[in-house]
Amino acid sequence: MSVKTILVSQPKPESEKSPYFDLAEKYKLKIDFIPFIKIEGVSTREFREQKVELASHTAVILTSKTAVDHFFRIAEETRFKVPDAMKYFCMSEAVAYYLQKYVVYRKRKIFFGRQNIDDLVEVLKKHKNENFLLPCSDILRERIPETLEQNKFKYSKLVLYRTVASDLSDLENVMYDLLVFFSPSGIESLLKNFPDFKQNATKIAAFGPTTANAVKKNNLRLDIHAPLPQAPSMTMAIEQFLKGAKK
After folding, report:
1. Fewest CB atoms less than 10 Å from the CB: which of 171, 174, 222, 246?
2. Rounded CA gap, 144 and 203, in Å?
């Protein structure tokens, strides 16, 4: 079966220069973008039930822009004035620059790693005596707290937002040749919305090893996987699949 229609389980790219649009034009594809998951912030009651005192922390570890948003949201909702002396340790430079939305960047102590917790640990070691706060989601990767514990950092984990399945009922009678997923939560959302889903001829693409494992764990067939050395991006992996299907 040739692939003519693709559903990407993410929001539509804001830039018109997205490789998905190039792919659609080159191969005459219909590509739709519908997020399969959404982020919901915890309530102030749920926050208080965790018994984590914001004021007792001297530094914050921020793993994503979403973590930044919800840290400052809960601070505002609980009328906690974030001290000017608070130190911010960000997973990447992009997350660090995003802080400008909430603080005067040049007047704050902001540090960042390259992309993952291992890079950031080297920076954290220079500030071993801080009491760190880790705002996170309900599905935080275990690698992060494990690394902090191994290095004996004093920290508090604080769940401020959760990942929930989107309502996909509008898709009930819509069929796509290829479904593209970027997280295990996306697979869970598919099966929650459509418990009787049968893959049949529908192709499934997964980005990252945990997403690929979720596909297989749910007895679905994985047809396209990225990143790979020859296909570091999802669009490149899809294009390679399309080229192979034409042969």
Report:
1. 246
2. 33
